[in-house]
Specification:
Blueprint lengths: L2 H33 L6 E4 L4 E7 L3 E7 L2 E6 L3 E5 L1 H8 L76
Antiparallel strand pairs: 1-2, 1-5, 2-3, 3-4
C-alpha cells in the first residue's frame, strides 16, 4: 500500500482523537466544578433553576430553592456554579453588575435618528373613496341594480341565486 491511500485514514483517526480529547476535557472540567461546590454557593441546575447549596454529599447535593424549601439533586444535575456577584444579580436583582457601555433601548424609537436638515414631507395621501359618482371610471353599471357577469340582476352587488362568482 502506498502512503497516498493511507493518508485519509490517518487524518480521520487524528480528527477522531482530537474530538474525543476535547470532549474528555469538558467532562473533566464539569466534574471538577461539581466537586468544588461548597455550602453557601449559588448554582444553576441543568433545568435552569437557581438555588443555594446547603450540603454536599458523594453523589447528591442539598439545595435551598427558596427560603425554607430544600430539595435533593444529583451532582450531575448541576449545570454551573456561579460567582456570588452573578448569583445575587440574577436571583436578587442586585444591580452591582456594570455593563461595558452598551445600552439597549426599550423601544426602537431611539435607534432611528431623525435628520434635522431634511424638510418635513407635508404631502398627504388621499385614502378617502369618492362617493359622488354612481358609476365607476371604466363605465361599469351603477352599484344599485348592478348585473352579474351572466346578466342576472343583483341587489347590493350580490348574485341573485346566492352564489358569489362561483363557477
Amino acid at each position: 500500500m502506498s502512503l497516498v491511500t493511507l493518508l485519509p485514514f490517518i487524518v480521520l483517526i487524528g480528527a477522531m482523537f482530537l474530538m474525543t480529547r476535547s470532549a474528555k476535557k469538558k467532562q473533566q472540567a464539569a466534574a471538577q466544578m461539581r466537586n468544588d461546590m461548597q455550602p453557601g454557593t449559588g448554582v444553576r441546575t441543568i433545568g435552569g433553576m437557581y438555588a443555594t447549596v446547603k450540603e454536599v454529599h458523594d453523589d447528591t447535593v442539598l439545595l435551598e430553592v427558596a427560603p425554607g424549601v430544600h430539595a435533593v439533586y444529583a451532582k450531575n444535575a448541576i449545570g454551573a456554579v456561579l460567582d456570588d456577584d452573578e448569583y445575587n444579580r440574577i436571583v436578587h436583582g442586585d444591580d452591582t453588575f456594570t455593563p461595558d457601555g452598551t445600552v439597549v433601548p426599550d423601544d426602537a424609537s431611539s435607534l432611528i435618528e431623525a435628520d434635522a436638515t431634511a424638510a418635513p414631507d407635508d404631502s398627504k395621501v388621499d385614502l378617502v373613496k369618492e362617493t359622488g359618482a354612481d358609476t365607476a371610471e371604466d363605465g361599469a353599471e351603477p352599484k344599485d341594480g348592478a348585473r352579474s357577469k351572466d346578466g342576472a340582476e343583483t341587489k347590493d352587488g350580490k348574485a341573485a341565486d346566492g352564489e358569489t362568482g362561483a363557477k
